């Protein structure tokens, strides 16, 4: 509980510092929101033109899109600079965090906090629209609401674990932007759509090597199609726990190998 209280205190302090520049804070939120809207509208227009994609309707894709959007926004809100570890390694700014009387990861997670209001709001809107339409058509019941909340929670943990493991690779590679483009950006973009659209080898990568498929697609098979039974949900939770434990172990190993730039 002491660690949680300390994290919340540091989070508030970081947020207050960013709010000193209110225009930049608000403008960045608006621009991020516009980018997300534009990306989804492109997909929606294509699906409205051609209809279902391999049996997945627009509202089902909208559901997948909303779940991963909210999960990513929560992860980037509460652990923003985990994704930006490269700049700390290159500039030597990680050194001051090492001498603070708190875990390095906790200190890093509370740096430059930005709350992604736009992404969370858009994800919620997508889910509300999609789930309402699917409930009207009889494909979903009210039990889908708590299950979806659990999906978002486990999805946030999985995305954080992937981001943390990728960041930890920086202790050996230093420059990890290209790696992040694959493990985070490209994989999350692919997971916005049904994995059945992709060849088997790519599905395997997105389920085993980079398990973003468990953020939304695998549990959605149970929620939307009734496939796999409740084991899909337990399996997703298990993947989240396993991914987090592996990422934390890899982070600790990498941190023990860290060598300062000397700057």
From TrEMBL:
Domain of life the protein comes from: Bacteria
Protein name: ABC transporter permease
Keywords attached to this entry: Membrane, Transmembrane, Transmembrane helix
One protein family per Pfam: ABC2_membrane_6
Positions of transmembrane segments: 25-46, 58-78, 124-145, 151-173, 201-224, 230-251
InterPro entries, sorted: ABC-2_transporter-like
């Amino acid at each position: 509980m002491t660690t949680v209280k300390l994290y919340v205190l540091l989070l508030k302090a970081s947020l207050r510092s960013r709010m000193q520049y209110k225009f930049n804070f608000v403008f960045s939120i608006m621009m991020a929101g516009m980018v997300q809207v534009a990306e989804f509208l492109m997909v929606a227009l294509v699906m409205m033109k051609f209809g279902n994609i391999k049996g997945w309707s627009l509202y089902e894709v909208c559901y997948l899109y909303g779940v991963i959007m909210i999960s990513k926004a929560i992860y980037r809100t509460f652990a923003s600079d985990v994704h930006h570890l490269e700049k700390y390694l290159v500039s030597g700014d990680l050194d001051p965090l090492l001498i603070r009387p708190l875990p390095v990861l906790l200190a890093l997670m509370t740096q430059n906090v930005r709350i992604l209001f736009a992404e969370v709001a858009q994800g919620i809107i997508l889910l509300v629209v999609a789930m309402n339409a699917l409930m009207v058509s009889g494909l979903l019941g009210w039990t889908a609401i708590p299950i979806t909340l659990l999906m978002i929670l486990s999805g946030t943990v999985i995305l954080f674990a992937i981001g943390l493991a990728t960041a930890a690779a920086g202790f050996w590679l230093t420059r990890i932007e290209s790696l992040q483009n694959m493990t985070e950006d490209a994989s999350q973009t692919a997971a916005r759509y049904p994995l059945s659209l992709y060849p088997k080898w790519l599905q395997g990568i997105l389920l085993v090597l980079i398990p973003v498929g468990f953020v939304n697609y695998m549990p959605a098979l149970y929620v939307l199609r009734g496939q796999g039974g409740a084991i899909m949900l337990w399996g997703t939770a298990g993947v989240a726990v396993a991914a987090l434990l592996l990422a934390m172990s890899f982070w600790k190993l990498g941190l023990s190998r860290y060598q300062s730039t000397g700057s």
